[in-house]
Amino acid sequence: MRTVALMGATGSIGTQTLDVLRRERDTLELVAISGSTRLEQLIDIAREFHVTQLCVSNDSDAATVRDALGNVHVVVGDSGLDELSRNADVVVNAVLGFAGLPVTLATLEANHRLALANKESLIAAAPLVEQVRRRGSGEIVPIDSEHCALHQCLAGSPAQPGRPDVRRLLLTASGGPFRGYSAEQLAHVSKADALNHPTWSMGDKITIDSSTLMNKGLEVLEAAALFDVDVERIDVVVHPQSIVHSMVEYVDGSTLAQLSNPDMRLPIAYALGLPTRFAHGWGRLGFDEALTLSFEPPDVKLFPALNLAYDAGRRGGAAPAWLSAANEVAVDAFLHDRIRWNDIVSVVASVLDDYVDDPLVNLEALRDNDARARALARERIDRLSHE
Ligand code: NAD
Ligand code: MG
Questions:
Q1: How far is the CA of 236 from the centre of ligand 2 (A)?
Q2: Does the pLDDT value for residue 386 go beyond 80?
Q3: Where are any strands of DSSP class E within the chain?
Q4: Alpha-carbon span 324 to 218, nearest angstrom
Q5: Is the sign of the CA dihedral 208, 122, 377, 350 positive or negative?
């Protein structure tokens, strides 16, 4: 029996992970969960799976959970996430944004498997995560569908430093809801338009990130951190059907791809089961009807987020942390109707203009950089909303 902790259990990835766990009750045991809102849902999950370790955001929520469940261990905040992430064989990090950092670091420090959906923590803390990975035996198995595809396509590649056998990684992108839009059309898109993703149903933040292509930019940085390939050898290709989830081109000219219908339960099950593949067939392709796959280059002029991410990747240090932090603040402001869709990436670009190289030597420096980038983003947003 493999024990599983699910951090961010009440979200989009969290609930899909529960679907996998329901089918694998004989092989996987859920032992710990966290959630920052929707307490009723969190309590229901604890009852259904007999979970006795829970993490919530504050003391008043902790009291509510104890009242509802009786004899359970309830912890709070960052230190709570840290504690519960050390207590399971596999930890699913499905927390949203930089708040997932304690989960990423604690799981790897405890030398366990990190099933990682939370790309923001890895991107922001890449140099620190690398140090922890080198010191111990913790491993990261990505849940993000593109990176799960790359993980599978790289399975035959020896993990030599810098991966000399790989010519490039090709990350596929659906193109989001605004693929093919003109600059004029993009100036007038609404929140409802941006939340209407053509192929995936996901949490609000990543759905907005997909509409600006910032999600793909973040995924370039995520791939660089996961697979030890620098950003110059990572390309993005738009593939509107979301069937090919990514590809690896080897130096001999071979390109390997992973194909399936879009269903996050496939990468989640992969990360929980490896080396076993669970026989659920989520996302399997029938090939009994005509299937057309198309590929085109991204429009980096209309979607400048991609180049911002490449620049941050080239600069390294704390630049990716700034990019991700400023983006989190800007997306939140957009979701609260404080700025327009076009402003999201402008705010991030203007924050990065102020970035001064910082090698990011420790956790304190990371928290410092994160706070600075957020403060600058808030300042820019205040200015915009008063214009
Ligand atoms: P979501 O908003 O649906 O769920 C987020 C979860 O994190 C919830 O359980 C919430 O309670 C918890 N949470 C939010 N803020 C928190 C905080 N400050 N402290 C502690 N917990 C907090 O998000 P999601 O779409 O499931 O995405 C989760 C992560 O997975 C993100 O990093 C996202 O980029 C990544 N991801 C999601 C998908 C998808 O299909 N949804 C695909 C690939 C990657
Ligand atoms: Mg993805």
A1: 12
A2: no
A3: 2-7, 28-34, 53-56, 73-76, 90-93, 113-116, 139-142, 166-173, 234-238, 244-250, 255-259
A4: 7
A5: negative
- Give the residue, by CA position, lying nearest to ligand 1 atom 36: 117
Nearest of 380, 371, 366 to residue 122 by alpha carbon: 366
How many alpha carbons lie under 13 Å from residue 103 in its C-beta half-sphere?
Answer: 36
Judge if the beta carbon of residue 99 lies within 6 A of ligand 1.
Answer: yes
Q: Do the strands 244-250 and 255-259 form a parallel or antiparallel pair, or are they unpaired?
A: antiparallel
Q: Going by CA atoms, what residue is nearest to atom 32 of ligand 1? A: 118
Compute, in angstroms, the gap from residue 146 CA to the centroid of ligand 2: 5
Q: What is the pLDDT of residues 306-340, one digit of tens each?
A: 999 999 999 999 999 999 999 999 999 999 999 99
Q: What is the pLDDT of residues 332-367, one digit of tens each?
A: 999 999 999 999 999 999 999 999 999 999 999 999
pTM, full prediction: 0.97
Query: Across all residues in the chain, what is the average pLDDT?
Result: 96
Sign of the torsion angle spanned by Cα atoms 181, 186, 192, 197: positive
Return the residue matching tokens 């959906």: 117
**Domain architecture of the chain: domains with CATH:** 2-142 (3.40.50.720)
State the closest ligand 1 atom to the C-alpha of 118, by its place in the atom list counted from 1. Answer: 32
Sequence-distant contacts of 381-386: CB under 8 A, at least 24 apart: 381/329, 381/330, 381/333, 381/338, 381/339, 381/343, 381/347, 384/338, 384/339, 384/343, 384/347, 385/333, 385/338, 385/339
* pLDDT computed for residue 266 by the predictor: 98
Kindly state the DSSP code that residue 62 receives in the 8-state scheme: H
Neighbours of 97 (CB within 10 A): 21
